[in-house]
Every structure is written in C-alpha cells, then in structure tokens.
C-alpha cells in the first residue's frame, strides 16, 4: 500500500499494452480512432451484461449468498458471450466500412487493412477490459491500508495486476485470431476463441488460489499468442529475419518517408 | 459547437471540389490546379467550417475561384470518369485528413479532461459544498424530499437556460446594430477576469492542498506573468502551443467553476438542456445562430470569433473589415473572442455575498451565452474569408490547415467528466466510461458532418452518450464490477 505497490502494479498491468500503443498505434490517427471505437464496443457489451445481471439480482433472493454467487457466475458467462458477440458485431461494422471505402475510392490499397484492424480492435477491447478490472484496485492501492489483514491473500494487488496484463494481451490475440477466422470463414476457430475466453474467466473462479488460476491463464496466453502470430502471417522464418535485422520489408518500412 | 464550423468548411471544400470537377474536364490544362485545390480543400475541409452550406456557395462565388454554377454538364463519359476519380480521391483524402483532424481534437479534449479530473481528485475545494450558489441557480438542492429537490433543479436549469438564451439574443442584437466596440470590450474584460482571478483562486487552493507555503509577492509575480502572457497569447500573438495551452487551461478553470457551483441534479439537467438548445439553435431556421450567420452574410463581414481552440495559426490577411483594427487579422480565434464575451460579462460584479460569486456569475452568463451559436458562425465566416482564391494556392497548407473547436464544447465535456469523477461512487470506472463516450460522440459528430455536409452542433451526441454512460455505469455496471472485484472474477 505504498507508491511502490501502486506504480509496480500499474506498470505490470498496463506496461505491455501501453508500449504496444506507443510504438505501433499512437502515430496513426486512424488506428487510434478504431482503438477507441473498440473500447466503446466493449463498454456497450459490459453495459448490457450488467443490465441483465442487475435485473436478475433484483428479482432474486438477496439474502441467499449461494444464489448471489450463482447469479454472479451467470453474469460472468453472459458477459463473456456478449463480449464475443460485440467483437463479431465490430468485425461486421469494420468490414462494411472498409468495403464502402474501397468501392468509393476504387483503389487497391485501403487506408487500413483488416489485420491491422483486428490488432487494434483487440487491443481496444483489452484496454477497456483491463482498465475496468483494475483501475479501482490501483486507486485503492495508493491509499492507506494493509492487504489481507482479515486473513485474505496478501498477494491481491500483485495477482490482480498479472491477471490484468494477461487479459489485455489475450484480448489482443483473440481479436487477431477472431478476425482472421471470420475472414476465412473458419467458424471452429471462432468457437475456439469463445471457449478459451470462457475458460480464462472460469479459471478465475478459483481465485484466492492464484497458482490454479494464473498459471493456466498464462499457458493459454502463450498458446493464443503463438496462434495469433501464425494467423497474422508470421512464421519462424519471418521471426528469424526480423530478429537478425535482415527482414527487408521491415527495414524498408522503417525507412519509408512519412 | 464550433465543430459545426469545422464540418461546414469540410463540406464547403467538398462542394467546391465538386464544383471544380466539371471545370477540370473542360479545361485540361487546369487539371493541376483543381487537384491542388482538392488536396488543400480536403485538408481545409477538415478544418474549421462555416455556417451552412449556403456559405460555401457564397464564399466560393465571392472569391471568384470558379464557377459556382454546377452547370456545364459533362459532355462525354470520359470527363465523367475524370470527375469521379477526382471525387474519390477527394473522399479518400478527406478520410485521411479527417482522421488526422479528429485526433487533433481528441488530444486537447483529453488534456482538458485530464486536468479537470486530476484537480477534482486532488484538490478538495472543488468538490466541497460551501453553501454558495450562483445567482443563476438560486434554489438549493439539499431539501427534505426528493420531489422538492427535483423541482428545484428543474427551476434552476430553466433559469440558467433562459439566461443563456437572453444573452445570446442580446449579442445578436448588439451585432445587428453594430456595437462592435462594446462586444470587444466585454470580451477583453471577461478573459482578463478569468486569467487573473480564477487562476489565482486555483493556485491558492492547490497550495492549500499540498500545504506549500507561498508569500504574496511571489504569488503576485506568478499570477501577473501568467495573466499577461495569457492575454497576449489569446488576444494578440503568441506561440501556437502556448495559446493552445492557455485555452485548455481556461476551459478547465471554467469547467471547475461549474462543477463547484452547480448542484448535482441541476448540473445534469443543464447539460441535457444545453445539448437540446444547441441542437435547436443550430438547426432551426429561426435559431439565433442562423440569424447571426445570415446577418454576417448580408454584411459580408466576419462574425466575431468566440473563444475557439485552433490547432493551427490562422492568418487572416484579406479580411474585409473596416471597423476593426489590424490586430484582428491575426490568429485563430484569438482576438475575436473578446467581442463574444464582452456583452455578456456584464453588470454583475455588484452581486451578492459570495466571495467569488460576482465574477463567477458574470463568467457563467458570458460563458453560457458564448456557447451559443456564435462559435460556429465566427468560424464559418472566417473560413469563408479564407477561401483559396483570396490567397495563393493552398498546396503547401495541407498539413497546416487545422481544426477548430469552440471552448464551450471543451467546457461542457470536461464538466461532464469532472462531475462524473466527483460524484460517482463508482469512481474511476464511471469517469473512464464517460471519457470514452464523449470521444466517440465527438468522432461520430465529425463523421456525420462529413456525410451530411451541413452545420451540425457538436454538443448533443457527445453529451447524450456521456449522460447515458454516466447513469448506466454508475447504477448498473458499478455493482457488477464491485462484486467481481470482491471475488476477483475476471470477465
């Protein structure tokens, strides 16, 4: 509960995401706009799922703790499904906008490709999701208090930060895979994304046992990362070329006059 | 509301492009010029606009840049193709430049909101209820019953909006009867008060919060320098970034004053009513905004620009304006802000007991009315005056044409977000939600403008989204997220 905890957890949670934003998105106005639009779509999905949960709580038995917990779990599952639905809706909207633009301009190059849109929208979802999950916790961590004084886990802040980082990156990977799957009409891949999202959320149900929830989440993160890398067109060869600075396309891109 | 301006110019430029296309087909040797025009046009299009599509016609014709008549139907299919290519290229460029200009608006709006939220969260002065109220909102909200409270807030909002309408009409009258000096004087006085007095109070409260000792002499020097440089930057000349920074700062100060002195329900009601008023004033034929624009058009002179944030320096060299001194032909909105505020910052200093009440009220009234129609109109007029033919071709100005946004928009956006962070128990989630909602509203407004090519107000969509998200997040999302955070479930 010091500045160290606050800054540490903030950077753990948002570090990779902010770095990605600064290095790849901040300079392109169109990408920033689509990022914020993605965040907006996530927000709307959250609103709808909160509405349903709220109504269900109002008509339920407020004293029964088990029922409340059950309703919460139902809320989580519903929220995940709604998020993925809104991801699909965003995909459709972007496709329409892109097609419209393409027919208007009759050029082959669109100002922004569907892959970039996938990345940017996934990151937008991730930012908003991470922010809503963790910002209040971070604000509390800057204030006075003792963690776990009543017997709860002492690693609350740290585990929240790590979980948030995983979620943000996962959203980005899910976005890439999802859009790619929709482009290629591979519905099993879409289903896999939804199922992995559900899995990650359900893993958090075990939560004071952080080993049981964080480790599998990071495993899934890694796997989704690899899948997203391959579906975005990456390969081992590309990776090697990029890391040894021999990738001509990348070098050319960096030297392109802006 | 000056967003109208931007958009209008956008539209104007597009119209001009469309006007030019037939030309290019007829006179092949001129193809180069229309292309340059279109490029500059698109960029400029995304810049500050003018009121009403009619202006573009008038402006273009007045500048003699080309046939305003859309006549000369293309004689053959080939010319049609050329036209279409140009139009598409224009569309594409419009989109690219449009995105850039949207971002040029996102950044200052975000900065202003960040300043307001940071102040609200750290300096408790602006969230304290000292029992003081503005004279425009005389009914208290700490009443016994909910019904009484609702009634009081409705009355407050009614009084406030009436004041705004009256002030706007007064300004229109003053403008109609050519009392330019009065307007200019008022505006100058108002910004003087804002830059010196409110910033002094702000600094004082910040020092109190952080328990910093400061002697009056140092404070006087700081405030004096801050104020004088601010007056120079805003009303005369100054580095662009400094001017932008000052405009953002005074918008933030104004928003903070509103957040402090408007009780909760009144504030939300006022926001809603102001958006509706903005919509009506801009779109109705008898709205004050329209009247102002038409008057200015008849006289063929620029309307006083209100406080407007501009992302580029605008040098108005060819402004036909016999009444004003030359200094008015300098940048962005600056000098012309005064005329706006002047009539409004009227007699009030003699007002009641509250220590900063008097100035506050005058400010409020002036700010209120300023949000009125004028912003877009000034912009529009100025942009018309700046039509390409009045200056050398604008190829080099692509990147430099900026966007303008009225400070009233800044103020109300920041006020919404600040109020959300001050009063919402959901704290940061609500603030974030309102922030994203406002940005998306701004984006949509600019998009609508590009589509409809007509004057549209900037407040309604953003404020509507902001209000919806505020109430929804505070009442629905907050309990859900709290429960989730309690169990550490992640969605």
UniProtKB/TrEMBL annotation, chain A:
Q: Which UniProt keywords apply?
A: Membrane, Notch signaling pathway, Transmembrane, Transmembrane helix
- Gene Ontology CC entries for this record: gamma-secretase complex
Q: Name one Pfam family in it.
A: Aph-1
Stored InterPro entries: Aph-1 (IPR009294)
Record's PANTHER family? GAMMA-SECRETASE SUBUNIT APH-1 (PTHR12889)
Instruction: Give the family from UniProt.
Output: Belongs to the APH-1 family.
Q: What is this protein called?
A: Gamma-secretase subunit APH-1
Organism lineage: Eukaryota, Metazoa, Chordata, Craniata, Vertebrata
């Amino acid at each position: 509960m010091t500045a160290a905890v606050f800054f540490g957890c903030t950077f753990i949670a948002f570090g990779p995401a902010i770095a990605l934003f600064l290095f790849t998105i901040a300079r392109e106005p169109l990408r920033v706009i689509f990022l914020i639009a993605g965040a907006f779509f996530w927000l709307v999905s959250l609103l709808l799922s909160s509405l349903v949960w709220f109504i269900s709580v109002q008509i339920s038995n407020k004293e029964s703790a088990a029922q409340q917990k059950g309703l919460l779990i139902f809320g989580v599952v519903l929220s995940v499904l709604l998020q993925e639905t809104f991801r699909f809706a965003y995909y459709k909207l972007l496709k329409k906008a892109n097609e419209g633009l393409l027919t208007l301009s009759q050029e082959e190059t669109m100002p922004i490709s569907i892959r970039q849109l996938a990345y940017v929208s996934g990151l937008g979802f991730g930012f908003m999701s991470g922010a809503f999950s963790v910002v209040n916790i971070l604000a509390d961590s800057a204030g006075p208090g003792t963690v776990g004084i009543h017997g709860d886990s002492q690693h609350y802040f740290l585990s929240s930060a790590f979980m948030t980082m995983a979620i943000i990156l996962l959203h980005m990977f899910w976005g890439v895979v999802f859009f790619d799957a929709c482009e290629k009409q591979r519905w099993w891949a879409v289903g896999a994304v939804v199922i992995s999202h559900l899995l990650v959320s359900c893993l958090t149900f075990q939560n004071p046992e952080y080993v049981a929830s964080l480790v599998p989440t990071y495993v899934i993160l890694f796997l989704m990362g690899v899948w997203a890398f391959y579906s975005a067109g990456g390969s081992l060869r590309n990776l090697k070329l990029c890391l040894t600075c021999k990738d001509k396309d990348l070098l050319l891109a960096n030297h392109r006059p802006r | 509301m000056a967003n109208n301006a931007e958009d209008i110019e956008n539209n104007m430029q597009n119209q001009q492009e469309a006007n030019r296309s037939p030309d290019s087909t007829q006179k092949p040797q001129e193809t180069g010029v229309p292309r340059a025009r279109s490029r500059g046009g698109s960029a400029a299009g995304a810049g500050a606009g003018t009121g009403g599509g009619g202006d573009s016609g008038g402006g273009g014709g007045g500048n003699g840049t080309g046939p305003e008549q859309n006549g000369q139907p293309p004689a053959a299919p080939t010319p049609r193709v050329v036209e279409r290519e140009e139009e598409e290229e224009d569309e594409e460029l419009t989109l690219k430049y449009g995105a850039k200009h949207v971002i040029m608006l996102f950044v200052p709006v975000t900065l202003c909101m960040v300043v307001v939220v940071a102040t609200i969260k750290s300096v408790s002065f602006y969230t304290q209820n000292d029992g003081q109220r503005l004279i425009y909102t005389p009914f208290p909200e700490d009443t016994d019953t909910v019904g009484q409270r609702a009634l009081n807030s409705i009355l407050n909002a009614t009084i406030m909006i009436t004041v705004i309408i009256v002030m706007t009409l007064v300004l229109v009258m003053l403008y109609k009867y050519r009392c330019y000096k009065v307007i200019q004087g008022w505006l100058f006085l108002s910004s003087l008060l804002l830059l010196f007095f409110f910033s002094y109070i702000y600094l004082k409260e910040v020092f109190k919060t952080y328990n910093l000792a400061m002697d009056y002499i140092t404070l006087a020097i700081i405030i004096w320098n801050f104020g004088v440089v601010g007056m120079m930057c805003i009303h005369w000349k100054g580095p662009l970034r400094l001017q932008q920074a000052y405009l953002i700062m005074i918008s933030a100060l104004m928003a903070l004053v509103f957040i402090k002195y408007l009780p909760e329900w009144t504030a939300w009601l006022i926001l809603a009513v102001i958006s509706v008023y903005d919509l009506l004033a801009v779109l109705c034929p008898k709205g004050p905004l329209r009247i102002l624009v038409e008057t200015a058009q008849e006289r063929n002179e620029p309307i006083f620009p209100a406080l407007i944030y501009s992302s580029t320096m605008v040098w108005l060299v060819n402004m036909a304006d016999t009444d004003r001194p030359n200094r008015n032909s300098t940048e962005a909105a600056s000098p012309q802000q005064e005329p706006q505020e002047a009539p409004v910052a009227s007699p009030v200093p003699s007002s009641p007991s509250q220590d900063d009440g008097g100035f506050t009220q005058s400010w409020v009234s002036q700010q209120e009315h300023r949000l009125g129609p004028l912003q877009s109109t000034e912009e529009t007029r100025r942009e018309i005056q700046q039509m390409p033919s009045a200056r050398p071709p604008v190829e080099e100005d692509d990147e430099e044409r900026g966007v303008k946004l009225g400070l009233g928009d800044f103020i109300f956006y920041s006020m919404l977000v600040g109020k959300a962070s001050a009063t919402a128990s959901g704290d940061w989630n609500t603030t974030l939600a309102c922030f994203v909602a406002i940005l998306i509203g701004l984006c949509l407004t600019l998009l609508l403008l590009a589509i409809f090519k007509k004057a549209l107000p900037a407040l309604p969509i953003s404020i509507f989204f902001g209000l919806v998200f505020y109430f929804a997040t505070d009442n629905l999302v907050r309990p859900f997220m709290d429960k989730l955070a309690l169990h550490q479930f992640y969605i």
